[in-house]
Write a structure and sequence with these properties.
Mean pLDDT: 90
Structural class: alpha/beta
Number of domains: 3
Strand content: 15-25%
Shape: elongated
Radius of gyration: 22 Å
Strand order of the largest sheet: 2-1-5-3-4
Distance between the termini: 46 Å
Largest sheet: 5 strands, mixed
Helix content: 25-40%
Order of helices and strands: EEHEEEEHEHEHEHEHHEEH
Number of helices: 8
């Protein structure tokens, strides 16, 4: 056994027991323990970690720990400048796509509203979510730390906020994706692309007041739902504008 000292910064402390928050603490480690093994053993999903230093040097998840090592762990927010930086993920995701767990249906709708391809089905098991994320190169969104600790998940975010609007701001700020927003391009219900459609083709499906007051419509290419710029659209646009300002 070896003993190492750990210090976690900022929101990573939320995953620790109260007595270990915002302080240095020592723990016993197996002789072949890596930084990743011990970080997760202490309750912190490795997908939440952006930077690790051991003895003041930037390192990766596979660094073997030695007796007396001092390990400092930073989240995506608040990581100090360090050179050279170590890429903790094996590969980047070049397209921002998500899969949300069963507790984040509201967030999934808002991400779709903002134009981000987001899978959400409330009957998906953890293993299903992991398999889809790996196969399709998606970021896992969850409030279940155990899901993020599945070994083969490489990109994920633990969502701290409780309300969907706050969750949207949190994700957009953390991942810096405000420049990729393409609002009202996806169906809020099934995530398929929307396309313009002539009013005459949907006229009989519209409420009388919409027939009289609107001329431009979009329809889902999969489920056939029809969208127009009514009061609901205006509320969502205001929410999105406020979120972008907050996250910028």
């Amino acid at each position: 056994m070896v003993t190492a000292t750990f210090r976690f910064h900022n929101e990573l402390n939320d995953f620790l027991s109260p007595k270990r928050r915002e302080v240095e603490f020592s723990v016993s480690c197996a002789r072949n323990a890596t930084t990743k093994h011990m970080i997760e053993a202490l309750g912190v999903p490795y997908t939440e970690v952006e930077l690790i230093t051991v003895q003041g040097e930037v390192t990766g998840f596979d660094r073997l720990l030695h007796d007396g090592d001092r390990v400092v762990v930073y989240p995506h927010f608040g990581s100090p400048e360090a050179t050279p930086l170590v890429h903790l993920r094996k590969w980047p995701l070049y397209v921002t796509r998500f899969i949300a767990d069963a507790h984040l249906g509201g967030l999934a709708r808002l991400l779709r509203m903002a134009g981000f391809d987001t899978i959400y089905r409330n009957n998906l098991r953890d293993r299903d979510i992991a398999d889809i994320a790996i196969r399709e190169g998606r970021i896992v969104l969850t409030r279940d730390r155990d899901l993020l600790m599945l070994r083969d998940i490489t990109h994920g975010c633990y969502v701290h906020a409780l309300k969907p609007e706050q969750q949207l701001a949190e994700i957009m700020t953390r991942l810096k994706i405000t420049d990729s927003v393409h609002p009202f391009s996806l169906c809020l219900e099934c995530n398929a692309p929307l396309q313009a459609i002539d009013k005459s083709q949907v006229l009989q499906r519209l409420p009388p007041f919409v027939q009289a007051s609107h001329e431009h419509f979009m329809t889902c290419s999969l489920c056939g739902r029809v969208y127009w710029k009514g009061s609901h659209w205006k509320r969502m646009q205001r929410l999105l504008d406020a979120t972008i300002r907050q996250s910028g």
